[in-house]
TrEMBL record, chain A:
Coiled coil: none annotated. This is Cytochrome d ubiquinol oxidase subunit II. It comes from Aureimonas populi. The keyword Transmembrane applies. It comes from the Bacteria. PANTHER family: CYTOCHROME BD2 SUBUNIT II.
UniProtKB/TrEMBL annotation, chain B:
Pfam families: Cyt_bd_oxida_I. It comes from Aureimonas populi. This is Cytochrome ubiquinol oxidase subunit I. It is a multi-pass membrane protein. Residues 439-477 are annotated as: Disordered. Coiled coil: none annotated. InterPro entries: Cyt-d_ubiquinol_oxidase_su_1 (IPR002585).
Length: 337, 477
């Protein structure tokens, strides 16, 4: 049994779960300045209040899991991403407490609204910077990071940073379409159009840029006959985009925009996976070089194979408990239907 | 701006700062989650409104504390990598899986059921809601289990081998998880969390009793908290003594620093130093106030036991004796004060005037924050006492740090200090403001006509009598 490979898939799943779950609640924060009525901001906040904590836990699993199963990758990538990681953590501090604080004060509510927005957008941007930095390649010497202190700051990483912000805004807007009604629902649909167009455009830019950053990416995506094997990914991205815009145009479903946006994220994620494999930090560090010994991987796999399905079960239960639309001024204290 | 600073020292300060801020919240939420589960259970069992009222009162405070614990905890899970990457690479195969188990078995459980616990009473009914409260409490204890195991392994490493590339490789997971100091540390910490919470709850109860002796909620809080103090404080002192003996066995140098024991008592008994000023240069205790032979009695359980002093260890391996000596005394002093409050409350109970015991209530108010001070002092004792090692005896702190410039560590340290004081200062203010309000019997979250922002938390169950049959107390069937 190839334990490092199994763990690479589990960890990839955890990161994807984080991106889409915290993605939509960070996205709601990113949209805050575009929800002018404070009642709408209250309602938007109430749609995510029972979930954000569980969503963010996937980030802890991403970091803790990397430490556990690929300690060398963790030890290399954290110093390489020092500034974006610290910025993300501080942003998440502001944003996390804003959930509780803004409902406890009238005078300072505006301040916590700003903290929530700024924290959300900075966390998303820092995550995008981190992604861009890893994609463009990290310099390693021996068992340590050997690059510079500002390597994370390049034109490409700024573009991926913006892409993640706009992409999360799309997730947030489509989530609000699903969870709200009336004027806020229609406002969210307008935001979803703009964020959707931006997301699609930036997926295009990043996809076109990536093959020219590292030889392995070029070889995997643009050399014949591999181009035929990977072609379904961009075709499916086009399909998901079509479904997104059609459902936004038709208003026939409140769920379909969100599901289409999720598919866009999942497909982009698979695309990055195809570029990276078999590296965890391209171009040098492979999954097997970075992995902890089998005695560590096996020990954790026993628990993970029992606990992750349980986590998925009770997380789904929690989403089911708080299903349905959130009405203005009501939150979750009355039944939703 | 940080030229000339030692990056390792800055990284140590940053770690000490962020983890000291963090530990305060788990210490409180471990105890509070269990307290909320007990209140919820008593309400289900007896149907008495006062239990629900006190539950709702502390639930709001729990929500704020938990949010602050979560966000400061996320910082911790990344700090190993940013500032201590060499340590991460080498210990990852052992500590990583244990921390991942914490996330999988405990962190998700808390976070997953927190939403139902805070907002779900109306949606799922009392029984499932109680289950959610219970799962949050179990989750906080599970977190303590794994984190204490991780910390204990760094203090008393076991079950490992060292590979050619320098990594610690797990050989025996049972020996790793249940390493020699783990059971003592876990018991000591969980009891500390329970005592800390008890004294906070007791202080709030006492504060409102001093203003209104008739307040049912305040009477319940004060009485429950002081039962906890009376029962748990003596157990904690016993557990602490056992932990100390375990430390003497595995980390004798740390105990020598805790006791300020510079020279081994080669002839005669070791005294117990109550106070004094440690002089590390000269290797002696100045102005010592001592109790003869008590040191031998406590540590060796005999009147002439010989206890190793710091002179038995290389000078470059000593921890900072000042910090360890005084933080240990602070912790023990607060523990004894807690024991005293517990005993005092038993005397008033026996006389039947606990509610009228004004001086006890005043003392309880003063003792309210002392559990946090004791927890921090205890952690400082054990962590500074472990220096100069990250993995005791095997890996030095100086060789654990990331290849990062002092300017990066220093700048991020300043950012952490600024953000933490701002954010957690505001949080503490909101918590204290919640505590200033007396517990009301209809402490039931928002009413429909209230604007939602005044609700205390985003969506509370609103619970007028007869409004919704699903939330009347379930009869014990």
């Amino acid at each position: 049994m190839d334990l490092p490979l199994i763990w690479a898939f589990i960890l990839a799943f955890a990161v994807l779960a984080y991106v889409v779950l915290d993605g939509f609640d960070l996205g709601v924060g990113i949209l805050f300045p575009f929800l002018p009525r404070h009642e709408d901001r209250d309602t938007a906040m109430n749609t995510i209040a029972p979930f954000w904590d569980g969503n963010e836990t996937w980030l802890v699993l991403g970091g803790g899991g990397l430490f556990a199963v690929f300690p060398l990758a963790y030890a290399v990538v954290m110093p390489a991403l020092y500034a974006p990681i610290i910025a993300m953590l501080l942003a998440l501090v502001f944003r996390g407490v804003a959930f509780e604080f803004r409902f406890r004060t009238v005078r300072w509510r505006g301040v916590w609204d700003i903290a929530f927005f700024a924290g959300s957008i900075l966390a998303a941007f820092a995550q995008g910077l981190a992604l861009g930095t890893i994609v463009q390649g990290i310099e390693i010497e021996g068992r340590a990071y050997a690059g510079g202190w500002f390597d994370w700051f390049t034109a490409f990483s700024v573009v991926t940073g913006v892409a993640v912000v706009i992409g999360y805004a799309l997730l947030g807007a489509t989530w609000l379409i699903m969870k709200t009604e009336g004027p806020l629902n229609r406002l969210a649909a307008r935001h979803a159009w703009i964020a959707g167009a931006g997301t699609l455009g930036l997926i295009g830019v990043v996809s076109a840029w990536m093959p020219f950053l590292q030889d392995a990416f070029y070889w995997r995506w643009l050399s014949f006959p591999r181009i035929a094997l990977v072609a379904p990914i961009p075709i499916m991205v086009a399909g998901a985009a079509f479904l997104l815009f059609r459902s936004l145009a038709n208003h026939e479903s409140n769920r379909r925009p969100f599901l289409s946006a999720l598919s866009l994220f999942a497909l982009s994620f698979v695309g990055i996976g195809i570029s990276f494999y078999p590296n965890i930090l391209p171009p040098e560090l492979t999954i097997w070089q970075a992995a902890a010994p089998d005695s560590s991987l096996g020990f954790l796999l026993v628990g993970a194979s029992v606990l992750i399905p349980m986590i998925l079960a009770y997380t789904s239960y929690s989403y089911w408990v708080f299903r349905g639309k959130v009405r203005e001024g009501e939150g979750y204290h009355q039944h939703g239907h | 701006m940080f030229e000339g600073f030692d990056p390792v020292l800055l990284a140590r300060i940053q770690f000490a700062f962020t983890i000291s801020f963090h530990i305060v919240f788990p210490a409180f939420t471990i105890g509070l989650a269990s307290y909320l589960a007990v209140l919820n259970g008593l309400w289900m069992w007896t149907g008495r409104q006062v239990y629900l009222a006190v539950f709702q009162y502390w639930l709001k405070i729990f929500a704020v504390s938990f949010a602050m614990g979560v966000v400061s905890g996320i910082v911790m899970s990344y700090q190993f990598g940013t500032n201590w990457s060499v340590f991460s690479d080498r210990t990852g195969p052992i500590l990583g899986p244990m921390m991942a188990y914490e996330v999988l078995s405990a962190f998700f459980l808390e976070a997953g059921f927190l939403g139902v616990m805070l907002f779900g009473l109306n949606r799922v009914g009392p029984r499932l809601h109680f289950f959610a409260t219970l799962m949050v409490a179990v989750g906080t204890l599970g977190s303590a289990f794994w984190i204490l195991s991780v910390n204990s392994w760094m203090q008393t490493p076991a079950g490992y081998a060292i590979a050619a590339n320098g990594q610690f490789i797990p050989q025996d997971w049972w020996a790793i998880v249940f390493n020699p100091s783990f059971p003592y540390r876990l018991v000591h910490m969980v009891l500390a969390a329970y005592l800390t919470t008890a004294f906070v709850v007791g202080a709030v109860g006492a504060w409102h009793l001093l203003k209104d002796r008739g307040n049912q909620g305040a009477r319940l809080m004060f009485s429950m908290a002081l039962w906890m103090a009376a029962v748990v404080a003596p157990i904690q002192i016993f557990a602490g003594d056992q932990h100390g003996l375990n430390t003497l066995e595995h980390q004798p140098m740390k105990v020598a620093a805790m006791e300020g024991h510079f020279s081994t008592n080669t002839e005669g008994a070791m005294p117990l130093t109550l106070f004094g000023l440690p002089d590390m240069e000269a290797g002696e205790m100045r102005y010592a106030v001592e109790v003869p032979a008590l040191g031998s009695l406590i540590l060796g359980h005999s009147l002439d036991a010989q206890i190793a002093g710091l002179d038995r260890f290389p000078r470059e391996d000593w921890p900072n004796v000042w910090i360890v000596f005084f933080s240990f005394r602070l912790m023990v002093g607060i523990g004894l004060a807690m024991l005293g409050i517990g005993a005092w409350s038993l005397w008033h109970r026996w006389r039947g005037d606990l509610v009228e015991a004004t001086w006890l209530q005043r003392a309880s108010v003063l003792m309210g924050p002392m559990g946090f001070v004791a927890v921090l002092a205890g952690w400082i004792t054990t962590e500074v006492g472990r220096q100069p090692y990250t993995v005791y005896g095997l890996m030095r702190t100086a060789e654990s740090a990331s290849p990062i410039a002092a300017s990066a560590v220093g700048t991020s340290l300043l950012a952490f200090i600024a953000v933490y004081f701002l954010v957690f200062g505001a949080g503490t203010y909101y918590i204290l403001r919640s505590m200033r309000k007396p517990p009301e019997m209809d402490e039931e979250g928002p009413r429909p006509e209230d604007p939602i922002r005044t609700a205390g938390f985003a969506q509370g169950p609103h619970m007028e009598a007869g409004d919704n049959p699903s939330r009347s107390p379930a009869p014990a069937e």
